[in-house]
């Protein structure tokens, strides 16, 4: 036998072995084994995202008529961050920021998802691009079971052919405000479905978006809670009843975590997508996703004297509750009013907790706030930008763009020729415009807004257009 043949017979099995090892290594990077996931002791993550819940719609924030004993207890057992902002003053773009970790204008999501005709007029896609960077997909690849319950609104029921939440990286979902071809769940089932998912996945790390309906219209107050607030006037009674119901269900969730013995390994975050809705005159309203109910006449949420409400870039529209609880990890009863946090920070934060790196080609507009969650000091090294294309001449609703950096916040509207500057370190409520005293700072921040706007796309991605556009009249 030739020597070369012997060598080949000897080297062939070694080559096969090396190939198998290489494949195994690649497989491990893409999908961790259950043993590897367990060895990391990854924390469970539950993100409760309220809707139109005002900064002061919490007992601990000074509500004059709402009662939130469970959320108050959550704050007592964790951290109450009071300088947290969403990066858009309405629902859909605010939610885009959470699951992409990027400013929503980067995805051409400028306002709420509605009808295809409306999207065309506002130069928006008909749904969030499912190929965009996605928090649930990244966590799923890190070994997490993922679920989305409650409001979706990354498309709308007016759109027939939008993708389901499964296309965004979720293992399970039960939602409303979905494309009309998909099954819509009851608006009040969100936290019950969350509890069911937690029970089924208690043995492995999980991530749940629990995007609750309260306090968006239509309001659906239950008789039990209406009786509890019978001493209030009609408007406050309805609003307080809605708040109390969801606070009670959050309490049930915390009890479940304790009963299952996973409380200390579960991070729970509570926040809202924007400030309180403007109180209107409509007592009854219709919603094509959740059905008829009580209207904006009963939307009497509070914002503690902060200027603006929903649709405003002032604090009343974008500074909202942000409570964090992780027993044994977060310090108890801390009120943090200085650390600047934003909705785009959640993706890098949750990825760090999952002990996995951000994708190589991904650029986050946020930064990990794990250090702050653990009670340490944190200096923000990224500005927070707002791009809002539906401003009005109403008081406190005029800004169309804003930037916050090192607790300086500048709001502007170039078409109106109006700009205001605030130092949040000493003027948390944005009461004193100091543009005249700080011309250099004004020029610096205005330039940063202009540079940011240059990075935004001119048009939405073509893969996020509904076939319904083909039937629109020119």
Task: Provide a brief overview of the structure.
This protein is α/β, with parallel strands linked by helices and 474 residues long.
Describe this structure in words.
- By secondary structure, this protein is α/β, with parallel strands linked by helices.
- The protein folds into two domains: 40-382, 3-Layer(aba) Sandwich (Alkaline Phosphatase, subunit A); 387-454, Arylsulfatase, C-terminal domain.
- The chain contains 13 helices and 16 strands.
- The strands form four sheets. Strands 5-4-6-1-7-10-2-11 form an eight-stranded mixed sheet, with helices on both faces.
- Strand 15 and strand 16 form a beta hairpin.
- Helix 7 packs parallel to helix 9.
- The radius of gyration is 24 Å and the shape is globular.
- The termini are far apart.
- The model is unreliable at 1-31 and 33-38 (pLDDT under 50).
Characteristic key phrases:
474 residues, 2 domains, 15% strand, four-stranded antiparallel β-sheet, globular, 30% helix, 16 strands, Arylsulfatase, C-terminal domain, alpha/beta, Alkaline Phosphatase, subunit A, eight-stranded mixed β-sheet
Spatial order of strands in the largest sheet: 5-4-6-1-7-10-2-11
**What is the N-to-C order of secondary-structure elements (H for helix, E for strand)?**
HHEHEEHHHEEHEHHEEEHEEEHHEEEEH
CATH topology heading of the largest domain: Alkaline Phosphatase, subunit A
Beta-strand content estimate: 5-15%
* Helix-strand category: alpha/beta
Main sheet summary:
8 strands, mixed
Measured between the Cα atoms of the first and last residue, the distance is 80 Å
Please give the CATH architecture of the largest domain: 3-Layer(aba) Sandwich
Low-confidence stretches: 1-31, 33-38
Domains, number: 2
CATH superfamily of the largest domain: Alkaline Phosphatase, subunit A
Number of strands: 16
Rg, Cα atoms, Å: 24 Å
Query: CATH class of the largest domain, anyone?
Result: Alpha Beta
Summarize the amount of helix as a percent range.
Answer: 25-40%
Number of helices: 13
């Amino acid at each position: 036998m030739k020597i070369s043949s012997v060598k080949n017979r000897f080297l062939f099995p070694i080559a096969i072995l090396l190939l198998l090892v290489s494949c195994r290594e690649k497989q491990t990077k893409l999908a961790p084994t259950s043993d590897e996931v367990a060895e990391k002791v990854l924390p469970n993550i539950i993100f409760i995202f309220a809707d139109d819940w005002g900064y002061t719609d919490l007992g601990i924030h000074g509500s004059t008529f709402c009662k939130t004993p469970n959320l108050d207890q959550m704050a007592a057992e964790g951290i109450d961050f009071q300088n947290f902002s969403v990066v858009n003053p309405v629902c859909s773009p605010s939610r885009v920021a959470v699951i992409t970790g990027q400013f929503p204008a980067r995805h051409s999501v400028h306002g709420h998802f509605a009808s295809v005709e409306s999207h065309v007029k506002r130069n928006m896609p008909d749904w969030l691009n499912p190929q965009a960077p996605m928090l649930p997909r990244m966590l799923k690849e890190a070994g997490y079971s993922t679920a989305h319950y409650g409001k979706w609104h990354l498309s709308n029921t007016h759109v027939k052919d939008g993708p389901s939440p499964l296309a965004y990286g979720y293992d399970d979902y039960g939602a409303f405000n979905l494309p009309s071809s998909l099954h819509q769940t009851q608006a009040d089932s969100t936290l019950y479905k969350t509890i069911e998912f937690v029970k089924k996945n208690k043995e492995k790390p999980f991530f749940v978006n629990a995007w609750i309906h309260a306090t968006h219209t239509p309001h659906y107050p239950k008789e039990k809670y209406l009786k509890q607030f019978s001493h209030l006037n009609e408007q406050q009674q309805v609003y307080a009843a809605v708040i109390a119901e969801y606070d009670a269900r959050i309490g049930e969730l915390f009890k479940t975590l304790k009963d299952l013995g996973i409380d200390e390994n579960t991070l729970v975050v509570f926040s809202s997508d924007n400030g309180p809705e403007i109180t209107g005159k409509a007592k009854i309203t219709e919603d094509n996703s959740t059905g008829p109910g009580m209207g904006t006449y009963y939307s009497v949420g509070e914002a503690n004297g902060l200027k603006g409400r929903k649709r405003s870039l002032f604090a009343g529209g974008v500074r909202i509750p942000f409570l964090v609880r992780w027993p044994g990890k977060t310090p108890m009863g801390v009120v943090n009013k200085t650390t600047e946090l934003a909705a785009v920070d959640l993706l890098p934060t949750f990825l760090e907790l999952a002990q996995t790196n951000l994708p190589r080609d991904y650029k986050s507009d946020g930064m990990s706030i794990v250090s702050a969650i653990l009670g340490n000091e944190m200096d923000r090294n990224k500005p927070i930008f707002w791009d809002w294309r539906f401003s009005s001449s109403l008081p406190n609703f005029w800004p169309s763009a804003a930037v916050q950096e090192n607790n300086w916040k500048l709001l502007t509207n170039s078409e109106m020729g109006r700009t205001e500057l605030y130092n949040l370190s000493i003027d948390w409520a944005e009461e004193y415009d100091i543009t005249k005293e700080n011309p250099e700072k004004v020029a610096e921040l205005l330039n940063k807004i202009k540079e940011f706007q240059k990075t935004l796309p001119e048009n939405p991605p073509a893969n996020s257009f509904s076939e319904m556009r083909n039937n629109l009249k020119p």
